[in-house]
Write a structure and sequence with these properties.
By secondary structure, the chain is of the alpha+beta class. It has a domain of about 80 residues. About 30% of the residues lie in helices and about 20% in strands. Strands 1-2-3-5-4-6 form a six-stranded antiparallel β-sheet, sandwiched between helices. A hairpin with a 3-residue loop joins strand 1 and strand 2. Helix 1 packs across helix 3. It starts with 15 loop residues before the first helix and ends in a 12-residue tail after the last strand. This is Putative outer membrane protein. It comes from Planomonospora venezuelensis. Keywords: Signal.
């Protein structure tokens, strides 16, 4: 409690800092996992067909110079602010790291999901970002794509 008798955190505080902390926790958890524990079939390996995109490469596609928030072996995260809106771009070194991060992602925030990357923001912003980046919009279950309208 502060001196005014109110809680220390305002209800108006955005969830972005909390998400960054959550991403860091997932990265540290994944970094502590041993590569020898990865299942066969390349689950813990980088994506086949080349390296995953960097935060900077994804950001360039939407006209952003990202402010890097997290720089770790398992993931990198940058914050972007463009005419499309504000969003976070996160890239992952392995599919396992991405899956662990997605499992810990807040259920109430939509994500735009690509090959070893995610974007996090409001649905309206993600719809605009999706036009440049592609990806699947995940509204609740972050491992399942959004069904086609119909």
């Amino acid at each position: 409690m502060n001196r005014t008798g109110k809680g220390c955190v305002s209800r108006d505080v955005k969830t972005y800092p909390c998400i960054a902390v959550l991403a860091l926790a997932a990265a540290l958890s994944a970094a502590c996992s041993s590569a020898r524990d990865a299942p066969a079939g390349g689950y813990g390996q980088a994506a086949p067909g080349g390296r995953p995109p960097t935060v900077e490469e994804l950001a360039a596609k939407v006209g952003c110079e990202p402010k890097i928030q997290i720089e770790a072996a398992e993931l990198r995260q940058g914050h972007c602010r463009t005419s499309a809106g504000e969003f976070f771009l996160t890239t992952f070194a392995t599919q396992q790291g991405k899956d662990e991060w997605m499992d810990a992602a807040p259920e109430y925030n939509p994500h735009l999901v690509g090959n070893l990357w995610t974007a996090l923001s409001s649905r309206a912003v993600l719809e605009r970002v999706r036009q440049k980046l592609g990806g699947d919009l995940h509204l609740k279950d972050h491992r399942t794509g959004t069904p086609a309208p119909g």
